[in-house]
## 1
Amino acid sequence: MKTYILPVLVGFGDCDPAGIVYYPNFFRWFDAATHAMFFAVGQSHDRAQREHGWIVWPLIDASASFRAPARSNETIEIHSTIEHWSAKTFRISHRAMRGDTLLVDGWEVRFIGEPHPDDPRRLRMVPIPDSVRQLFDEVDVAGPTPRDAPASESERSQRP
Amino acid sequence: MKTYILPVLVGFGDCDPAGIVYYPNFFRWFDAATHAMFFAVGQSHDRAQREHGWIVWPLIDASASFRAPARSNETIEIHSTIEHWSAKTFRISHRAMRGDTLLVDGWEVRFIGEPHPDDPRRLRMVPIPDSVRQLFDEVDVAGPTPRDAPASESERSQRP
Amino acid sequence: MKTYILPVLVGFGDCDPAGIVYYPNFFRWFDAATHAMFFAVGQSHDRAQREHGWIVWPLIDASASFRAPARSNETIEIHSTIEHWSAKTFRISHRAMRGDTLLVDGWEVRFIGEPHPDDPRRLRMVPIPDSVRQLFDEVDVAGPTPRDAPASESERSQRP
Amino acid sequence: MKTYILPVLVGFGDCDPAGIVYYPNFFRWFDAATHAMFFAVGQSHDRAQREHGWIVWPLIDASASFRAPARSNETIEIHSTIEHWSAKTFRISHRAMRGDTLLVDGWEVRFIGEPHPDDPRRLRMVPIPDSVRQLFDEVDVAGPTPRDAPASESERSQRP
């Protein structure tokens, strides 16, 4: 997978009294993009828990630079890529785009957790298995962006 | 317009520690559906303000019955219809569906406001113009639901 | 307990481009008030699960009438009371107040759930034990409202 | 002002299916802390707009490191300080604490905006006036933290 694209219809309620997106919502969409990207290759929180006893993708760091605002009724896209795999962490880049305009440039660092043997309420990091890494090598789910794809007028007006 | 359909991909962060959608999010999606439905026929908060000085669609009442839960990574749909126009209010029905299963059955009563002449921080109701009512008679934007519509593989993978 | 009072400082991000509280946030605060009210008498989601295998307080219905708006930096209060106990459900009234002004008048109907023996992903209602009902008879946690309570200057400055 | 402290009662709905705070909520609380801190020294979005035509405190960057999780019904505190004033930006440090435990360590960089003369939908940065900087030199609003302050049992159970 090169880049996963999550379309987002900006709602009136996603915006603040300045009329632009309330910034924590971008992190909400980054998180949603991470979960949707993994789900697209067959992984989910429930499945990882059930099959491996993993708590998947707790966050270590999140960061964003805000370059241009988004407003109600705009459809934007979150472009997400796994930029880097370390032994126990991985870094996902998220770029919020409106057409070709970069609105927000951010990233998250996450890991795979399991209950700590000394204290089940704490987590310890699991070395990232090759099988997880390979999910993103072998599958290409991104394809054309929604704005390149054929779509009826009615569909476009409704896209979330 | 018979029924406007807003697809919603349920995020991990839309769910609570019981693993199901945190209920206020359904009202968030109902509100988003109302705004998207009006936007589909050419109306928005900004435009109504600019052209008529209206504050559009403040809420009087909202209500919902919760019949079945939704979970992370499910795509659900909000089916919205204007059920009834009164002289100064209108009632929108919202049904959250997962396939043919009704999850949540709700409605909102809203009005068109303008600043009260005695106190600009209060609103008074504007009699609903025929032109607004007719927007929904004359236009049919709903079309096929996303699950009936032809979609490319890449598109489908992004609405998992 | 007669009435539980949850103070809420309305944030900039709780408001929408019309400059008033985005309505689903009132349901968020109603839910928070229900959980805080039960926590004040010693009950929580985790404890009910651990001690009884209960899923506590899934929602059946929620409703609200919006009478006056709230704005950023206002401190409002949610006044919550269990109005009625039925055999398997209970009804909580929530009133959002700014001083003596009623802003939103709402209620929730909830129950105590347990996994259905035929399908653990469904819930069935547990008859409400007297012990739960009595929690609210025997304990008075409401006490003075925050605005009557003595508070240091520094404390008050943090609830502007 | 050395440090502004905003107490936060973590709600059930602020947590995700892993049972811990959904991370974008920390940014929501950081933003709330910034607004509450300025409000405590007499500044708000509405007032800045009315008196100076300023759009106050748009965000340039936000970042956080997540060190320990928070859970439902815990009261945490956001400790916020303006760390650095530049000619046109300022940096606010936010530390989410549970007692003496640092949960999340973050910061925001913000500025004061005014409509750009060439395009009123864009903003340009206003050099930060001494009068704004001095608000934080001259006033000490933080005082003791809420957990040091005398409070009745009922009050503590209700603190948001």
Note: The longest strand of chain C covers residues 101-116.
## 2
Amino acid sequence: MSTHDSVTNPAHQLPDVSQLVVGVLGGTGDQGRGLAYRLAKAGQQVVIGSRTAERAEASAAELGLGVRGADNATTARESDIVIVAVPWDGHAATLSALREELAGKIVVDCVNPLGFDKQGAYALKPEEGSAAQQAAALLPDSRVTAAFHHLSAVLLQDESLAEIDTDVMVLGEDREATDTVQALAARIPGMRGVFAGRLRNAHQVESLVANLISVNRRYKAHAGLRVTDV
Amino acid sequence: MSTHDSVTNPAHQLPDVSQLVVGVLGGTGDQGRGLAYRLAKAGQQVVIGSRTAERAEASAAELGLGVRGADNATTARESDIVIVAVPWDGHAATLSALREELAGKIVVDCVNPLGFDKQGAYALKPEEGSAAQQAAALLPDSRVTAAFHHLSAVLLQDESLAEIDTDVMVLGEDREATDTVQALAARIPGMRGVFAGRLRNAHQVESLVANLISVNRRYKAHAGLRVTDV
């Protein structure tokens, strides 16, 4: 078992990311604020980004834990890793405007392009294949990954919960970048970062959120996912 | 907690399926044989279907456990629930030919339309949206569901394993049919059947297998999925 564990433990030999600054674009939304809270609580330096610095600063002050707020461009410039948690509607425009600020950075796209109607949620079909592939197309000088799709914003923001019982599927082309994002996910108690393929396989990971929404309705749950045998 | 459990336990109030006959089209392939083995071991009556009765009978004899073999049409006719585990290549042709035999039956599509190249697996895009939606289009008189996508054929067939550590996402439009398939999944020790949406959200469930293949390569694993908080 011990030799097997050393192979399969996804936290094995991941880099130390504790000194990296994490920016969260869309950090005033539920998902972004929840991630910022969990990462800051784990000891990470976090900057929340929004269209206006004032709004970001107000959200950051509410969160405490040393979280700072800034406009999106400043957030991108001052961060080592930048999580993109903006609404799908604003995804392309936000990223296009930040191409220079995001150059050389690890970008973590966690956007789920979904539509909603009377029957619930359904997958949208981005022209590039997925939100993550759109990010990669718009940010050719960044190291684009995809992760943090399947987290419940409710659970992330629930201060009474010490741990979040879920794995984080991490996708990307660049091993060093995906290792870094896996390590970042593992900073949050209860979470593991699990490598789950290249960006061309991001669409199904993003749109699986539609299924988790169905699970949540049926079972009155805040569903997450664990990858077994890893 | 107890009232909450009664809501969230996916096995709650599911029908008794122990007397239903389960047919497995493509039952001589790895996935089909593995499912037939697990269901028969759980006490279910199972018929393996193949293009030729001889081949199905040979596979059934190898499995033992009372499993019978027959051609696909006979299998469909004699079963209450029919699992479709044929290769994607033969999916449309096989189902088109069985429209009459499958009328009124619960059909469980577990086919994953994937392509493979040097970089691994990737999602194909069926014209109907997914294999399950193709099945629904070809079988208007059947009750089509989708399930059993994320199971490792290796683990299913490993007789040394008493339990399979995974949940089974079950999709469909017809509550009675999805409840029945959830109950069938729960017959296999370790598994739960979890309702996970309508057939229009089947594509991402089917193609997520491409990601699990990446997980398996990276971690030398046979990955499955658990839905948390359910």
Note: The two ends of chain B are 13 Å apart (CA to CA).
